[in-house]
Structure formats: C-alpha cells, structure tokens
Amino acid sequence: MQKASAKLQEIVRNVVEPMGYELVGVEYLTGYQGGNLLRIYIDKENGIIDKENGIDVDDCAAVSHQLSGVLDVEDPLPGQYSLEVSSPGLDRPLFDSADFERFVGRKVNVRLDASIGGRRKYKGQLLGVEGDQILVEVDGEVYPLFMDQVQEARLVPEF
C-alpha cells in the first residue's frame, strides 16, 4: 500500500468523518494504469461489516462528490489523477498500528517491500503489535514484521 501524505489524509478525513463514515485508508498510486489514482476506503462508523448495512454505491458517490469539491479547492496533488471511493471489502486493507491492533486474532495476508530470509509474503494469524512490529503466526512459527516494511496487509475473508 502506498499510503498518502499526512496532509492529504487530513483533508480526506475532514470530509469523510463529518459525513458519518469511518476513513479506513487513503492511497495515492502513481503510474497506475498509465495515470495517477487517489483511492479512498470508507466504511460505516465503527467498521460495521454487514452486507445489508454496509457501504453501497450511493455512499461512495456522496463521498466522492463532496471530496472532489474540496480537493479542487485545496489542490493537494500535482497534475491529474482519478478519484476512487470504495468499501474496504471483506479483504479489508490494514494501514496502521490501530488497524493491526483492532484485528488481532484474525487471519491476514502481509506482503513486504523486500524479502526477509528469502520471503516477502506471509499468510497467518495476526497475534499482536509490539512497538513498531506486527506479529504474524504462520504454520506454528511467529514472525515479527516491521510495519514500515509492510507494502500491503489485508484481512483474509472468513466465511
């Protein structure tokens, strides 16, 4: 995940949260399919994961409309980009230590920027957060992974 700058996250948060949504995360991807992409993940307040009451197209459209106006005025990004507002989905992305702490005990997929001992991908149970590391148990072995080395982390959907 390419997290957006703190300034951009603050601008987005100041639009999303007063509308009654939780800001899950903000990504700014350069060179994405030949352009730049600002991707915003929103959820219902308190992160309700519920098919009947979850985020729908109307929620995404409302946030996109409000956010577009603010971004045009604030102009925090250089050049052109596409704006995408979406639900985090069942494979919810995890952006910061609060996300990791919130989902302790759940199964996660973690991909690192660079390999450690020849390994970049870890799929296992999230055991916790210790300082600047997350602990993931894979096949009975616990791996401490530095958060600043995490390229992408997502929940594994449970059915």
Description:
This protein has 159 residues and is α+β, with helices and mostly antiparallel strands. The protein has helices at 6-16, 57-74, 97-102, and strands at 21-32, 35-44, 82-86, 107-116, 119-130, 133-138, 141-146, 150-155. The strands form 2 sheets. Strands 7-6-5-4-8 form a 5-stranded antiparallel beta sheet. A 3-stranded mixed beta sheet has the order 1-2-3. It is globular and about 50 Å long. The relative contact order is 0.15.
Short description:
This protein has 159 residues and is of the alpha+beta class.
For the structure shown, list the relevant keywords.
8 strands, 3 helices, five-stranded antiparallel sheet, 159 residues, alpha+beta
- Total number of beta strands: 8
Derived structural class: alpha+beta
Q: Which shape, going by the Cα principal axes?
A: globular
The amount of helix comes to 10-25%
Distance between the termini: 25 Å
Radius of gyration: 17 Å
Strand order of the main beta sheet, please? Answer: 7-6-5-4-8
Order of helices and strands: HEEHEHEEEEE
Q: Give the biggest beta sheet.
A: 5 strands, antiparallel
* Uncertain parts: none
Name the beta content range: 35-45%
Mean pLDDT: 90
Total number of helices: 3
